[in-house]
Write a structure and sequence with these properties.
Ferritin; globular; mainly alpha; 0% strand
């Protein structure tokens, strides 16, 4: 990976982060707030209230690669910051943190036993569908609550960077992203989106979002990821072909 690029990105991303105005008045109804609280609590747990790191049994296979551990540490530090922001949002609305949830327990268990390759792909898809969640929360609830707006914008800023980070990592891996890969990726993305919507759809609907809007945005997010990943991968392959010396001509060597 391009170590300097991403070290600089994570360094710069710490700047100009305005803390949300937690004491600002809200126009959200009591029903909207009460519906939102369980959703915020689950996200707080998933983003850092629980095990906030790679958990796969063979994670060292990935982390032992050059610069991988350093960049993964920075990535998950930002996820832990999301947990802090969500915890403060919970406190603002009078909610409480939770220590466990069935969906998060299953998520961690599957990641642990199916290996780091599966875990990384699952986390990429989680970033994509979670970004849709925050985008819809910002769109439908942000106008009624300044602190919620500011929190969502900070998280979206980070998640957008994380998606780009994974895209760059995958494009440089030398893997191919054909139709079969895209089909599996989309199926996994729809499964991840459905799991998120089962747990959090009620909260977004209370703010004014719809099922159709959510799935359209999830599909758009996955399609954009695949399209731009393929373009970036082609650029990387062309660059590699250009800088790789051509093999010596055996006939010429003999002469």
């Amino acid at each position: 990976m391009n170590l300097n690029r991403w070290l600089e990105h994570f360094k710069n991303n710490k700047r100009d982060r305005v803390e949300p105005k937690w004491n600002a008045p809200t126009e959200l109804t009591s029903h909207q707030i009460q519906t939102l609280l369980p959703s915020l609590a689950q996200f707080e747990l998933g983003d850092g209230g629980g095990p906030c790191y790679l958990t796969a049994w063979n994670r060292e296979k990935f982390l032992s690669q050059p610069y991988a551990r350093e960049l993964v540490d920075l990535w998950f530090l930002e996820e832990a910051e999301h947990s802090r922001l969500l915890g403060d949002t919970l406190h603002r609305f009078g909610g409480e943190k939770i220590e466990s949830h069935w969906s998060f327990s299953i998520f961690c268990l599957v990641r642990k036993f199916l290996g780091v390759g599966f875990e990384l792909r699952t986390l990429i898809l989680t970033e994509i569908v979670s970004n849709v969640y925050y985008q819809m929360m910002l769109k439908h609830g942000g106008a009624k609550d300044e602190a919620l707006t500011q929190m969502c914008r900070l998280v979206i800023r980070d998640e957008t960077g994380h998606i780009a980070f994974h895209k760059d990592r995958m494009a440089r891996s030398g893997s191919r992203f054909g139709m079969l890969w895209a089909g599996i990726f989309n199926l996994m993305g729809l499964a991840a989106g459905t799991m998120l919507w089962l747990n959090h759809g009620k909260a977004i609907r209370a703010l004014g979002g719809t099922n159709r809007e959510f799935y359209q945005e999830v599909w758009h997010g996955m399609d954009h990821f695949i399209t731009t990943l393929r373009k970036l991968s082609k650029q990387e392959n062309k660059h590699h072909d250009y800088i790789t010396p051509a093999p010596a001509n055996p006939a010429r060597q003999k002469s």
